[in-house]
Amino acid sequence: MDISGTCISSTEDEHGPIYVYQTRNSRILSFDGKIYQSCMKLNNINGLHLGYTQAMMAGLFFIPIVKTATVMGLGAGSMAKNLLNSFSELNVHAIEYREAVAKVAKEYFYLPDTDRLFIHIDDAVNYMKNTEMKSDIIFSDLYNSEGMEPKQVQSSYLRDCKKALNNQGVLVLNICHTAPKLREELDELLASEFENRLLSFEVEGGNTIVLAFKNDIPSIKREELLTKGKWLQEEMSIPMERYAKLLGDTHGYDHTHF
Question: Do 33 and 3 touch, CB atoms closer than 8 A?
Answer without folding.
Answer: yes
